[in-house]
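Q: How would the structure tokens look for this protein?
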Amino acid sequence: MAATTYAGGNTKVHMGGANSDIDIHLEIYHDEVDSRFQYQSIFLGLSSQRSVADRSNTYRIDRMNTSTVKSRTSGVALENQKVTNDKVLYIVDTVVYIRNPFDWQDEWTSPDWLMDIARNNGSEFAETFDEAHIIQLIKARAWTAPAHLKPAFSDGLTVNVTYKAAPANQAEREANAVALKRGHLEGINQLVKRKVPLRDMVTIVDVDTYAALLEHPKLLNLEVAGGAGDGDYNGRRFVRLNGVPVIEVTEFPTTQYNNTDTKHVLQSANNDFTLSADDLKVKMITFSKSMSLLTINAHNFTSKVWEDDKELNTVLDMYQMYSVGIRRADTVIAHKLVEPT
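A: Here is the predicted structure in token form.
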């Protein structure tokens, strides 16, 4: 392309160097910061909350078996029945925290991002909180009710759902959705047979399973909602299936946690948060908001900014002391997705 007659002689403001070929333009900055997307916990409304703050690190619930109706005729002696019982303990022994220090010299020469960082930290805490609850729900399927507490208590339960992880066509996608709906109904039927009240039952699914469920050919005849009027679900998408809300949840675990090198932050001698590869196949869980989970709080979530005069640092500390356990494993149905053979 031909050059103008002024080429080589133009004055270029904010182009530095002897040849005016180094860009030194000012950066226009309006304190706009892009970072992670924010997350609000959903399990504050899906678990029973208990506090041991300033009193103990241990919460106790008693478990009691039931009796059996007997009969007699005239002259026959009555049979005595002993009601057996037991206890379950929930121990809080771990503080989860984030500490962010800021050197004063750096603070004096840069924008204040303290609130932005604190907001991000809050989302990290919320995600950890929700994942911990889902882990305990998954682990409930392995619980075996002690013989001396049956029939008042039943074993944990897994419902296998035949599910093709990579459907090749619409027919296979619809088959997945039909299998999910059928598996969900089977779980609900099991709860009904156990006489578990359904009034506050809820089902959570991971994002991919929720999307698969929407391929059901008749699902559009059911209530679909999200956002306004969604109660405790913090804007999550949900449908109502077999009379139970099915909520899309993003925090289903994807990592196998063990007790050595890959530990969940709440893993301890008293609290088991390990997960196997088989556990990770559970992508849909039905449970009771009031009876399935128990969250024990020893110290509520706290955000604190303090000055370390000796080290010339401002410190942002955020911390919480809690644990999560299963109260009634027999109110939880874990749906495991299994590839067809």
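Confidence is low (pLDDT under 50) at residues 220-231.

The chain has four helices and 15 strands.

Upvote if useful.
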